[in-house]
Amino acid sequence: MVAFLGMGLLGSSFVRAMIGKGMQVQVWNRTASRATALEAYGAKAFENAADAVKGADRIYLTLKDDASVDEVLAAASAGLKPGAIIIDHTTTSAEGAALRTQTWKERGFVYQHAPVFMGPANALEGTGNILVSGDQELISQLEPELAPFTGKVLNFGPEPGKAAAIKLMGNLFLVTFTAGLSDMLSLCKALNIQLDEVYSLFNSWNPGAQVVPRIKRLTSGTYDEPSWELNMSRKDTQLFINAATENGTHLAVIPAIAEEMDRWIAKGHGSQDWTVIAKDNIPA
């Protein structure tokens, strides 16, 4: 018997997958209709969180943020079964995940943060990635349970909150990547580049394959043998900005990058590789 709190798109898909694997699932959502909709698939919906978790050995969460997790768990606490394990898939702060791990341990319960790189389709299909960190004995116990619901369980070691930090890093990349694509489409609009031409390029040229080599270049600490000088990349960046301005389209990300480039050029790095702009950001 498991309980699932938070019936958004991701949570609902997880529940449907669990039911498909023969599990009994009790569900709750702040907007009750989202929970009752899952009864058509075999879930049992409850009006309050405390009733939803009664008798459950595992309590899963997919909520909005730290505040909502704390609020919902407080509301559910009266119904928690001794020995129940809380598995939280919510994207939260690293500090919040670590604090909840300790707080619920002091209350006699186990809390495991397990954020995901999964969309609703992944949750239905059992693909994607679940991230974990913390008590390695507990993770060894939970991994066989989590594995069927994802393509891979990624274990980032014994530090509570590390998985939350990794999830934030990944989400920052996705936000930046998507905003960059939006700017790219804006430039396409300005330069009369059609979508079929965009697809034609990226079906042949996959810049995603450059992520790991580019990180290595950014973090190498050596910038004196440039493959693309900062001055030249800044020149191209200005071409983007000019084309958008002249044709009435908007760039959201590129102007901020241009400012950062200008800052490094002013410090005398214009003839170095343009990856020098990451020099002060390299983790120890």
Automatic annotation (TrEMBL):
TM regions (residue ranges): none
Name listed for the protein in its UniProt record: NAD(P)-dependent oxidoreductase
Domain of life assignment: Bacteria
Residue ranges of domain 6-phosphogluconate dehydrogenase NADP-binding in the record: 2-154
Pfam families: NAD_binding_2
InterPro entries: 6-PGluconate_DH-like_C_sf (IPR008927), 6PGD_dom2 (IPR013328), 6PGDH_NADP-bd (IPR006115), HIBADH-related (IPR015815), HIBADH-related_NP60_sf (IPR051265), NAD(P)-bd_dom_sf (IPR036291)
GO MF annotation: an example: oxidoreductase activity
Sorted UniProt keywords: Oxidoreductase
PANTHER family in UniProt: CYTOKINE-LIKE NUCLEAR FACTOR N-PAC (PTHR43580:SF2), OXIDOREDUCTASE GLYR1-RELATED (PTHR43580)
Active site residues of this protein: K167
